[in-house]
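Quick question about two entries, pasted in order.
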Amino acid sequence: ATACSALSTPPTAPQPTITLPSSAPPSSAKASAAPSSALTEAMARAALVTDADLGEPWKPTQGVATWHDGVLKAKADRRGCQRLLDALYADELFGADARPRAVVGMDDEWNAAQMRYQVLARPPAEIDKTLAWLKSMPKKCAQFAATTTTGAVLGVQVGVLPLPEAGDARQGLRVLLTGQSPDGAPSTLTLDVAALRVGEDAISVTNGGFGDVQTEATQAAVQLGADRLTEVRRQGRVQV
């Protein structure tokens, strides 16, 4: 048995309309003056996209989703695909040592989905290496099997997720992990994954759940986030 049924929702959940709000950072979280062009923790926090930006049905997260450990903590049957599962489980597409970093979690209350949004500093060359690796996944790991810590076997599919032309470089993936619920019915965890480089900084977004995962929300967060980070960086340079 898996944790796949923990977040299932009725297929008739209402569909919200995502409207793109202003890219300007909240007035209460203006970027602080920086002694250099390096991203600061204050800048990273000011550049975050939050539930207030996305609107209903998004709310501040109530904790890590049950599928995080129940599904993503798994061993792939192909060595080249294990790195992807590990990165999704750790929520560290760009590596654990990327600093400074600001992170926010949001829950879609209508569809029981969860989004994690991060802004972080990383050398541009390293960001581009990560984007190139992600780009290779739909070919190298289009389909593979993974075994969870409970022994459940999942079928994993990796495809391309279209993203808006935001930032300087970007890559999106849609990952489907299919197993069985306790009653034997098929159950699929859907994960939207987006990574992008904005100047010398990076943004990562994951949006997943067993119900309806709104790709429109993922795309809106990417576009708004890239614009906001650009503006925060501009303000920081002006204040120097």
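Here is the second entry:
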Amino acid sequence: MACPITVTKFVGTVSLGILTGLSYSASAVTIPSLNLLPTSANALRSLNEVKRLNRKHGLRLTNIANTCLVFAYSVSPKHRKHPYLIWMCVASIVGSYGMDFWFHRELGLKAWAQSLIQDSGCMSFSRKNGAKKDEDLVVVEAEESVNGESVREEMARERRLQCARAVCSGIALAMGIVGLWGDRK
């Protein structure tokens, strides 16, 4: 039977692998394909949805990975407490929360934290089911009010964010693979 500590390390490492794949595919495939949409209004709407979903799932994967890795570190016996678990957590936090704040620093800390809570779906517990949600309302913008160059710049910025997130989570993933390989008997 597998050791529970090893299982939590494995789950944390797999979560980092999925996070790396999510960020890489967003930066290499999804965001560049938005340039092919016929109008800038469609591209902006699609980009905003891609950003929201990538942020939501990326932060969830980071939280799952960090919870598993910190748990594995804290319950490990003294002779098996490997610092690579903490370094993996640091790299994934820098890659997710740090890069997200860096690319949204013009919002300020309070507004960034509020947008983080809103995008991660934590506010859904406090909403009433009968009330209309902001997501349910569709805002139709005139096509001439959306500037194509600003949409293209926003796509490039989001692509850089996803590349940076993929690199940091990839570093954490590499540490995890080497660490798991070293743990085997």
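Reply: The chain is about 70% helix and 0% strand. The chain has a mean pLDDT of 85. Hope that helps.
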